[in-house]
Amino acid sequence: MMIDIQDLRVAFGKGADAIAAVDGVTLSVREGESFGLVGESGSGKSTVLRAVSGLNDDWTGRIAVDGTVQRPKRPKGFFKLCQMVFQDPYGSLHPRHTVDRILSEPVAIHGLGEADARIDRVLRDVGLDPAFRFRYPHQLSGGQRQRVAIARALVLEPRVLLLDEPTSALDVSVQAEILNLLRRLRAEHGLTMVLVTHNLAVVANLCDRLAVMNRGRLVEEMTVEELRRGAAREPYTLQLLRASRGYDRAAAEGFRDYA
Ligand SMILES: Nc1ncnc2c1ncn2[C@@H]1O[C@H](COP(=O)(O)OP(=O)(O)OP(=O)(O)O)[C@@H](O)[C@H]1O
């Protein structure tokens, strides 16, 4: 298994006000697999991803990546193995740094050589001409910015990409381009991907398997094939499926809180 999570728990706040944002999640993802974590806003998807990525070090349970059990604080080498891409590329790219600097910094921090060749290669890999090196984020379109954010994650040649709503901030036409890019990168580099989204269509496009979260728990795990056939078992998942097929008045009015 590339990622193995056992009984992950994350709480925010203390005492009587504590919220169990992640409430005992167990899941595993094979090498080369693309796994989707879906659910409504606030269900705990991003919190799972942030614990796996090392961004949040306040959790209990067991997280192993590539066979190594992870402590909450990660050693530097972890980030060569596992990188995260965020929803909002504008917020996650430094506004006063050129693309060149954005991509050089991780290369320098990890002491990797051949920065120039590496940066040219990774830009081509995400479909950007090397001339983009000397631009600033505000000179790029939303899709180009997300390509730079993906390049920044890939420049260290990781084996795992964690993606938090990687297309939700983009126009619909650009969303398709970025999904195609991620599919190609996954095939070419044999990447393992974990993708968090509220959008089942994105999961159907990119993933092999998915888990549905509700209120901090996994309520159902299924293959994308089962999702396409509508073969969900849990009422909550069926409801999510109906809601994702566009606005459906009956579904919206009948929406129930499956606690
Ligand atoms: N840093 C934080 N401090 C306090 N509460 C938080 C924090 N981060 C998340 N939460 C709470 O934890 C719960 C799960 O949030 P999380 O962001 O993981 O959900 P999500 O399913 O990813 O939703 P979204 O798509 O809106 O990000 C929510 O109730 C949220 O308000």
UniProtKB/TrEMBL annotation:
Matching Pfam families: ABC_tran
Alphabetized GO MF terms: ATP binding; ATP hydrolysis activity
Keywords: ATP-binding, Nucleotide-binding, Transport
InterPro entries noted in UniProt: AAA+_ATPase, ABC_transp_ATP-bind, ABC_transporter-like_ATP-bd, ABC_transporter-like_CS, P-loop_NTPase
PROSITE patterns to which the protein is assigned, alphabetical: ABC_TRANSPORTER_1, ABC_TRANSPORTER_2
Domain ABC transporter: 3-240
Top-rank taxon: Bacteria
SMART domains, per database record: AAA (SM00382)
Gene Ontology biological-process entries: transmembrane transport
Family from the record: Belongs to the ABC transporter superfamily.
PANTHER family: D,D-DIPEPTIDE TRANSPORT ATP-BINDING PROTEIN DDPF-RELATED (PTHR43776:SF7), TRANSPORT ATP-BINDING PROTEIN (PTHR43776)
This protein's name: ABC transporter
Species per Swiss-Prot/TrEMBL record: Azospirillum thiophilum
